[in-house]
Write a structure and sequence with these properties.
This protein is an alpha/beta fold. The protein has a 5-stranded parallel β-sheet, sandwiched between helices. Helix 1 links the parallel strand 1 and strand 2. It is globular and about 50 Å long. The termini are far apart.
């Protein structure tokens, strides 16, 4: 423990998969973690695991494609702890259709989460990180990105 002791981290898509593993690792290494996702029950379970292991965590519901939701979440982080040191833009979705079978609505949904969500997360994380003149932003991607 200790590589990120005393740091505040926010992880998107943290209710399962790579986001969950990232949140657990950051907490194990000493960060205060904001677990964010649309899956409230699964996110709460991740928070429970972190707290049971002696870490600090909170769940915040976040639709990464929604700019207003980003503003609300970062305002909550600011109100609760006053800073953000680490932002992990992990949330993403896949769509299994082909170009020929995919309609524009589905295409836009994938792009809004996988691309717009990363843009918004970066934009609003920087805003909060600038107050302390430091921070790290990690953007994860898959072949869908």
């Amino acid at each position: 423990m200790g590589r990120v002791a005393g740091k505040v981290a926010l992880v998107t898509g943290a209710a399962n998969g790579i986001g969950r593993a990232t949140a657990l690792l950051l907490a194990r290494e000493g960060a205060r973690v904001f677990v964010t996702d649309l899956k409230e029950q699964d996110g709460a379970q991740v928070v429970h695991e972190i707290v049971q292991a002696g870490g600090q965590a909170s769940f915040l519901r976040l639709d990464t494609a929604d700019e207003g939701n980003w503003q609300t979440v970062l305002a909550a982080v600011r109100a609760q702890v006053g800073r953000l040191d680490i932002a992990v833009n992990n949330a993403g979705i896949a769509y299994s259709g082909t170009v020929e079978s995919t309609d524009l609505e589905h295409w836009r949904r994938v792009q809004s989460i996988n691309l717009d969500g990363v843009f918004l997360g970066t934009k609003y994380a920087i805003e909060l990180m600038k107050e302390h003149k430091a921070g790290s932003i990690i953007n994860l991607s898959s072949i869908e990105g």
